[in-house]
Amino acid sequence: MLDAQDLENIDQKGLALTIRSVFIIDPAKKIRLTMTYPASCGRNTAEVLRVVDALQLADKKGVATPINWSEGADVIIPTSVSTEAGRQKFKDVKEVRPYLRFTSGELK
């Protein structure tokens, strides 16, 4: 990929330096995530896999993942789901605030 905002970042031959980009595209051909790195930085494969796991979990169970989420950690019940509906759907619901509810994601 080329950085359209930094076309002045060129090598000794006058060519624009590339940036590294990762695109996660779902089966419906919808771009779900893009990550862009400068050429000088390596990519984090573990982070890419973590995001794929999070997207698949969100699609399967209708939850959201918090910052630094890892597989097996609690997830967030979206605000579009009422607490009562969350209690009917999930085995456990921990309400921190009316708008912030956590669950293990295990369905009833």
Please give the structural blueprint.
Layout: E1 19-25, E2 31-38, H1 45-61, E3 75-77, H2 83-89, E4 94-97, E5 100-103
Antiparallel strand pairs: 1-2, 3-5, 4-5
Write a structural description.
The protein is of the alpha+beta class. The chain has two helices and five strands. It has a three-stranded antiparallel beta sheet, with no helix packed on it. Strands 1-2 form a two-stranded antiparallel sheet. A hairpin with a 2-residue loop joins strand 4 (94-97) and strand 5. The chain is elongated, with a radius of gyration of 19 Å.
**Beta fraction of the residues?**
15-25%
Strand count, sense and barrel status of the largest sheet are: 3 strands, antiparallel
Chain-averaged pLDDT: 90
**Unreliable runs:** none
Summarize the model shown.
With 108 residues, this protein is of the alpha+beta class.
Which tags fit this structure?
22% helix, alpha+beta, 108 residues, three-stranded antiparallel beta sheet, single chain
